[in-house]
Amino acid sequence: MLRIKGMYENEIVIEKSRFITRIFGVDNIDMVNSILEEIRKKHYDATHNCYAYILGDNQEIQKCSDDGEPQKTAGFPMMDVLKKNDLTNVLVIVTRYFGGILLGAGGLVRAYSDSVSQVLKKCEFYDIKKVIKFSFTTSYSGYNTILKVMPYLIIDNTSFTSDVIITGYCDLDKYDKLTEELYKYKIEANGLLNLGESFIEYKK
After folding, report:
1. Which contacts qualify for 11-17: CB closer than 8 Å, 24 or more apart?
2. Please, what is the Cα angle at 131 between 197 and 185, to 5 degrees?
3. Which residues contact 130 (CB under 8 A, 6 or more apart)?
4. Alpha-carbon distance values, 133 to 57, 98, 109, 177, 196 (Å)
5. Which of 87, 121, 164, 188 is the most exposed place for a label (fewest CB within 10 A)?
6. From CA 78, how far away is CA 149, in angstroms rounded?
7. For residue 100, what is the DSSP state?
8. d(Cα 89, Cα 2) in Å, to the nearest integer?
9. What CA–CA distance (Å, rounded) separates 90 from 117?
10. Cα 185 to the center of its chain, rounded Å
């Protein structure tokens, strides 16, 4: 499930109508409502402020609005683009200033879909995964071996004293492999501690 940070904006013009699209990374419904209120105030004179949002690790909260456009010609196609891109914790708002030319139902669906697709081209995406955090002390030679043979480890912090103190993360299903490879390569790992499960962000 992909997410974005911050806000991205794009504008397209179709048959003299302006479609201003903004997409936001959001954490909860309060953020969604606050942003919607802000955009509606900013564009109080717009013909429509249509939106779609998805929240939750499994996209369990979904809502969209046509805001006066014909039913299922705005919010629904916007939502469809978000879902097809496997996004969550995201809000997209398309502000339309009518240019005087009717687009028809099919034209509106394409316009709102394209608006969201275009703004997504500007976004940087990240994901969240569940990992195990660990910590241990090893020798300098052990540390060098770890760097060579355990590329799946995410080393978060390293302290170089008489020995090397390592704190890092690995995927849930890799923790057993970590302990096996420490033994296999005869790496001393004094005080190997499982610090519990955590969540980390990584770019996609």
Report:
1. 12/111, 12/114, 12/115, 12/118, 13/99, 14/99, 14/103, 14/107, 14/111, 14/114, 15/99, 15/101, 15/103, 15/107, 16/99, 16/100, 16/101, 17/96, 17/97, 17/98, 17/99, 17/101, 17/103, 17/111
2. 110
3. 172, 197, 198, 199
4. 21, 53, 46, 14, 6
5. 121
6. 45
7. S
8. 8
9. 14
10. 37
User: What tokens were used for 163?
Assistant: 């020995």
pLDDT tens-digit profile of 38-53?
999 999 999 999 999 9
The answer to whether the pTM exceeds 0.90 is no
**Alpha helix (H) ranges present in 99-191?**
104-120, 140-149, 175-184
Whole-number Å distance between alpha carbons of 86 and 35: 22
Please list, residue by residue across 84-103, b when 16 or more beta carbons sit within 10 angstroms of its beta carbon and e when fewer do.
Answer: eeebbbbbbbbbbeeeeeeb
Domains of the chain (ranges; CATH) run 3-123 (3.30.230.30), 127-203 (3.30.70.240)
Q: Which amino acid is at 92?
A: V
